[in-house]
Amino acid sequence: MPGVAPPRNLTPGLCKAIEAEMLKACSEVAARHGLVAEGLGLQAMDLRWNFDFGVRVSIPLPDGSTLDPDRMLFEALAEEYGLSPTDFGREFSTGRERFRIAGIDPRRPRYPISATRVPDGKGYKFTAENVMLLLQAR
Fold it and tell me: What is the pLDDT of residues 81-136, one digit of tens each?
């Protein structure tokens, strides 16, 4: 809106509120085309300047749900890495920070597990063994 002064800096609450408002607008546009928009969450947050978030627009399945390619790949490969298909989206703590499991990349044999840091959505890579131990420590 013209005439609205920008904030001096961003806060996690403001970023989440803006993300929700933008997702609502994207959902309305997608619905006009028979599609579904779903938020992929905050992916990076620099509270001084900007934040990133993702939106996936999909053709809905007959039940109204959508396919998540990251979840499907994780569920297919999880057991090969000693994890359960239901571990997708689970949170774990390293002692200092909390992370959410976001996928598996088999092209990264040393650090195949992708996770996002819970407060700001920044992506990190972990070994499967480390994630297994951290999930058990919960």
Answer: 999 999 999 999 999 999 999 999 999 999 999 999 988 788 999 999 999 999 99
Residues 6+ apart with CB under 8 A from 107: none
Q: Is 18 exposed, middle or buried (0-12, 13-18, 19+ CB in 10 A)?
A: middle
For 117, the token pair is 């840091």
Beta carbons within 10 angstroms of residue 21's beta carbon: 10
Burial zone of 59 (CB within 10 Å; 0-12 exposed, 13-18 middle, 19+ buried)? exposed
Query: If you ran DSSP here, which 8-state letter would residue 16 be given?
Result: H
pLDDT tens per residue across span 2-31: 688 988 888 888 998 999 999 999 999 999
Strand duo 113-117 + 98-104: pairing: antiparallel
108: number of Cβ within 10 Å: 12
- Phi–psi pair at 82, nearest 5 degrees: 80, 15
Enter the pTM of the model. Answer: 0.71
